[in-house]
Every structure is written in structure tokens, then in C-alpha cells.
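FORM 7B: Structural annotation worksheet

SECTION A. Query
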Amino acid sequence: MPVRIDHRWRWVLPLLAVGLAVGCQSVPQARQPIPAPAEPEEYWLFDRLLGQGGEGAEAPEGATRSGSGVRPVGVAKPVPTHEAETAMRPPAEGRAGPVIPPPAPGGGPEDRTGKPFELEDLAPERTYQRFKNLIGLGPNEDIARERFDEGRRLFLLGRYQEAAKQFRSAASRWPDSPLEEDALFLLSECHFFLDRYPKAHETYNALTTKYDNSRHLDVVVARQFAIGRYWDGLDHAAPKWALVPNFTDRSRPIFSTFSGAIDAYTAVRLSDPTGPYADHAAMATANAYFLKGRWEDAALHYETVRRDYPQSEHQLQAHLLGMKALEASYQGPMYDGTPLFEAVDIADATLRQFRGRLEDQEAQLRSTRRKLEEAKAERDLEMARFYEAKRQYGAARFYYEALIREYPQSQSAQRARLRLAEIAHLPDRPPDHFAWLTRWFGEKR
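SECTION B. Predicted structure
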């Protein structure tokens, strides 16, 4: 015979379950310091990405295999600055990657034992955390440090697949701590060395989002920039339609490799906007859009390089290519002339700032400058023709005269002089065929 519960007690059972879940908070264990590594801290950047990929990595289209890894076609190794070089030294003999210093003391999950109940305690993430606590998977520093040490041992042996599992577990068992920061970083490194660049990019972003001033930031932005260059080169060598999914090559995003490269460049600039790779990322973004024929986007990012990175080595190219992008985005005299006017301003600024560095490019730049001035004159010519077609000859003469005054040596000025002579005898305004009506209501009405 089934057991029936009185309806008066039915609402009590859910409340008891919620109270039990809220009250069951695990207390963090005492922290034990990790012994300092025996060898100095070491980092390396591009060797594995540009020719020493992980075992079993499939060569993507547009790439050739060199040794045991994938070497992309057309992907140039970026030149790091001095600061980046000092932070990314080659590994010692027999070592597979960086040696991470022990995390700083302090930090760890918040202990809410004894605190009053709040509505935030019903949030899904806290409910999930309480469930993990109930089944014995809650925060535990001893377990986290044990798995971190095991992961580091596997990492130094080059067993990245096994090390990734240990680092992932260590990060989840002691969140909001320096240990989690190091575990997330090494988890990203495992994905990077396994040539799983989408996962590495995602985990690097998670690290810099939660720890925006991470001590691993120099290495993270270098990795992100390398990933962006790799994807950018692959997309240029073997472009694919963005909506065609990729299920075979784990080194490329599932969909658009080009969008992935732009995301990686953006992550570099957002994570370290004043770092050694920020201007390289902005310039690479602009060049990627330029090669795609997306002129407005390219011009916007070239402007970012000129405005935000005045000491960048890319200043001259940002001026020249920015002018070209604006010129290409101009659609004609009957459309918005802002790109044309901005291109002329950039050409003038380039001639002033880089007079001694242009060499053979100066003649071409001056030729482009005259071409842009001719396009500006053509705009006034089209406007004069517009009023002439409406038989507003006074307004047409105004634009013809302004064109001759401002651009006297242009071809449009020669045509304007001929038209002025032909319409000299015509009235400024067309005849009023409704004079009898305008006398009644007034000319303005």
C-alpha cells in the first residue's frame, strides 16, 4: 500500500532540502607551501607552434609538416621586443616548457560558514558548488596542491594530455587563489603544446579575464599573438567559407579561422594594451582586414595604430596603408566624401612626419596626393552639374568658380572654365511659370 504524505507537510520537505544544502559548507583545509623549483623559471614561445607540434597532430590544409609538427605556410615569426625576449627564453636541455614558481600565499575560496542566508546563495553556480561540496568535490587545498604538483611533473615530462587533467582538477579544487591562476596558465600551456589552439585561446582568455593582472601576462599575450598569426596565415593560404564547420583539425576553430585570428589579436590588445605586442596585434588586425577587402575596418585599425601607438615601428606603414584603405572605401563624388578628405589629411601628415624616410615611396605618395585632390575637385564639378541640370545656373556658377579657385591645375577646373563660358548668358534662376500663383500666396510659400 503506497505511503501518502499529508498535504500540510508537502511544503516542508523542499524547505528542509534547501536548508540542508545551504548549511553544508566545507571548511578549507590548512595551506601547505609548494617547495620552490630547483631550476630557474624558463619560457619559450614559437618553436612548437612554428614547426614542433604535438604528437599525432594532423596537418591542416595550406600547411606542411616539418619534423614532428605543423609549420604553417606564409606565417611569419613576429619579432618580439627586448622585454618579451627576456621573458621567453629557450628551454634548458631536456625540458619541455616553463617552470612555474610556487604561488604566493593567501587566497582561496570564500568561507561562508556562519554567514546569514542571502538570495545570492540560490544562484546556479553556488547551488552547483554546494552540490560538489556534498559529494566530496568541494574546495580542498591539499588535494589541489597534490594534483598541481602531479600535473607539473607530467608537464615537464611532455605528457601534456595527462597533465591537463591534473591542472583542470587543481583549478576547480582551490578556486580564487594563486594556485588556480597557475593551474589555469599551465592548463592553457598544455592545450598550446598539444596544438589545440582553440582550447588554448579559450583558456588564456579565461585566465586574463579572472586575473587581469596575472604574473603570466607576458607569456599569455605572446601565445595569443602567435595563435592569431598562425590562424591568419592559414586563412590567407587556404581560405574557407565561414559557415563550413571544421571537425577534423583541432588546431583551427570550428568555423571561421579568420574570425578566430581577429579574436586572438583583440585579446592581446585588451589583455595588455601597453605591452610589447599590442601595436603588432593592432597592425596585424588592420592588415588582415585589408587583405580581405574590408576597407572601412582596415582604415579604422590603421587609425588605431597611428593614434594609440605613436612610437610603434608600424607608424609609416599605418599611414600609407591607412591612406590606401580610405581611398578604396571612397565610393564616388555622389557619396560621402569623409574617407576622401581623411585620406588627403593622412597624405599630408605622412609627407611632413616621414620626409627623410620615404625614399622611393615619396614620388608615389605625391602622385596619390594629386589623384586625391582631383577626386575632391570632381566632387565640386558634380555638384555644379547637378544645379545646372536643375537650371539653377547661379548655384552652378558658384561651384564652378569655387572649383577653379581651389583646384586651378586640375582637369575638372578646365572643364569648369568651359561650362562657365557656355552658361554665362543664362539667368541665375529658371523662369517662374506660376507667377500668377506666387503673387497670391507669396514666393516663399
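SECTION C. Observations
Strands lie at 63-66, 69-72. The chain has 17 helices and two strands.

SECTION D. Sign-off
Analyst initials: ____
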